[in-house]
Amino acid sequence: MRSKLFLGATAAFAVLAAGSVILPDWAMFLCAMALAKGLVCLGIVGMMRGGVVSFGQGLYYCIGAYTATLVANSFGVSDIFLLTLLSALACLLVGMAFGPLLSSYRGIFFAMLSLALSMVLYGSLSKMSVIGGTDGLNIAAPTFLGWAPEGRPLQTALYIYVVAIVVIAGTLMRIYFDSEQGLITLATRDNELRVEYLGASVRNIMTYNYVFGAVLGGIGGTIAALALGHVDPEFAFWTTSGEFVFVAILAGYLSVPAVFVAAIILELVRSFSNLYFPNTWQLALGIFLLVVIVLLPNGLGSLVGRRKGNAA
Amino acid sequence: MTRTVLEVRDVQKSFGAVTAAKDISVAVPEGAVFSLIGSNGAGKTTFVNMVTGYIKPDSGSIRFADRDIAGMAPRQITRMGIHRSFQIAQLCNDLTVEENMLLAGAIHGASGPSFLRRAHDPEARDRAVATLERFNIAEHRDRLVPELSGGVKKLLDIAMAMAGDTQIMLLDEPTSGVASDEKFPIMDLVMEALRSTGVTVIFVEHDMDIVTRYSERVLAFYDGRIIADDAPDEVLLDPEVQRYVTGTPA
Ligand SMILES: Nc1ncnc2c1ncn2[C@@H]1O[C@H](COP(=O)(O)OP(=O)(O)OP(=O)(O)O)[C@@H](O)[C@H]1O
Ligand SMILES: [Mg+2]
Q1: CB distance B167 to B4 below 8 Å
Q2: In this structure, are residues A245 and A293 in contact, taking their beta carbons and an 8 Å threshold?
Q3: How close A278 gets to chain B, by Cα (Å)?
Q4: Closest ligand 1 atom to the C-alpha of B206?
Q5: Average of pLDDT values for B129-137?
Q6: Separation between Cα atoms, residue A57 and residue A175, nearest integer Å
Q7: Which residue stretches of chain A are H helix?
Q8: Would the pTM count as exceeding 0.90?
Q9: Residue B223 to chain A, least CA–CA distance (Å)
Q10: Does the interface predicted TM-score (ipTM) exceed 0.90?
Q11: Are A179 and B119 within 8 A, CB to CB?
Q12: Which ranges carry the ABC transporter domain (chain B) (predicted)?
């Protein structure tokens, strides 16, 4: 029932928000980045439910980050709510432009086409010296409805902000996954012919999922840019997109919280292996993913989520 | 006189050198039960595919609800009220029986599928189970599709197609892949469920006992043409039909 969902969301918010008190600076930053990236991955999971995987979600991560930065630097906007809204809007528009095109592709073609779009953006940004070229741009610390914290309070505010967005987005996506349209998405992955012959448009449902993924990607990119204070074309680079896919596969499509758990795991593994075996951490990550795929083919989410019946 | 609900006129379709439909013309009265017979490759599925939009005829018209539907997308034709089942049941294997039915209900629902309304809404489930009960497969509701027998799959396929506001139902070999002792019970169930809604039925069938028992008119296909079009008894006595379709000499 819905009440269970809202209870879960409240609990998730409480637990995550408690991090702002307990966690040291570095860990809070790590979690904020992981949650921001988790938003992007949640978008991929939405597409995965329909049977496609975007290898180019860096596109929206990057568009979101640059939109916020350019708006902040050109118009002096620093309000985090406004910046997030504008980036989401920009990604909504771009998503709506490319969605109908991509929605007729499946499998490797969908993956490669989305990758190609992101690499075009990467290439263009790298060449555009007016907006920093490969060096990128800096973005000033955000304000929160007029409040301009600094130091630890800024970190905390940013962290609480991303936690709130994650909980809201996660709840909305869960509602969507469990909805009638969500069921059509699952059915599309399974049997497109059946879906069309029931009278639903497979292309439309694919477009919706793509556009939702775009918006989530943009929000994630905005928050990441604000947390880092910096954006560069790497946001759209294929390795960035690859990490998002990694998290989505690690999480599976059964559980929304699993996406954010997976995102945090990735950040932790990256930080620690970077520290202890700087040259082989990708190897560690690869082995880790392999083990998960073998042991939990439906991802971490299958430890808690049930596909059948009433997922919470 | 009953109204003509579907009128196919001079329809042609070739796949390269193969003529799958040649000069196909037929008028189907509302509420009628038609059957299509013919040997393998005679063009029966092609007929169903053209009426339901899977294949666009090379020429000719298919009139339904005052429109020429030839070449329209399956989705549009479905929304207009022509539904079908498949020679090989088309189901979602990762979903349970009930979820397959919920899917059909969600798409056919009056307000269209929602982004917010739960697919497993209690009311929707009641409706799904009621339809499953009509087809006598409610007991399988929690099972996944791959665990089902051929007969149950066929019934579910038909039940899903009947979830909407169906005016014409085309069944492509409803009893193929079904154990022989299940064929009549299944047809009884299906025909009873369909008749109670007043829907027009066109079914493809190889078993002549079923054809005689359930249809009032038979179209016999051979080599993409309709070689006979009459009441079952008449068609089965037709020498051409005996030669090319039933293989029973007079
Ligand atoms: N999509 C297609 N592409 C090429 N040829 C096709 C296609 N669909 C049907 N055909 C050909 O058209 C002819 C009629 O096929 P159809 O499937 O309509 O036969 P049928 O009467 O349904 O036979 P069966 O009893 O085996 O199901 C066959 O020769 C078939 O090979
Ligand atoms: Mg056939």
Answers
A1: no
A2: no
A3: 42
A4: 25
A5: 94
A6: 22
A7: 2-22, 25-48, 58-75, 80-102, 107-127, 151-178, 180-190, 192-198, 202-228, 238-251, 256-276, 281-295
A8: yes
A9: 27
A10: yes
A11: yes
A12: 6-248
Kindly indicate the confidence band of residue B65, based on its pLDDT and cuts at 50, 70 and 90. confident
Cα distance from A25 to chain B (closest Cα, Å)?
38
Low-confidence ranges of chain A (pLDDT < 50): 308-312
Do B103 and A309 count as a contact with CB atoms less than 8 A apart? Answer: no
Largest Cα–Cα distance in chain A? 58
Q: Are B140 and B152 in contact (CB under 8 A)?
A: yes
* Mean pLDDT value across residues B225-234: 92
Out of A179, A184, A200, whose CB is closest to B117? A179
Dig out the tokens for A105 from the structure.
Answer: 């592709």
Domains for chain B: give ranges and CATH numbers: 1-81+167-250 (3.40.50.300), 91-164 (no CATH)
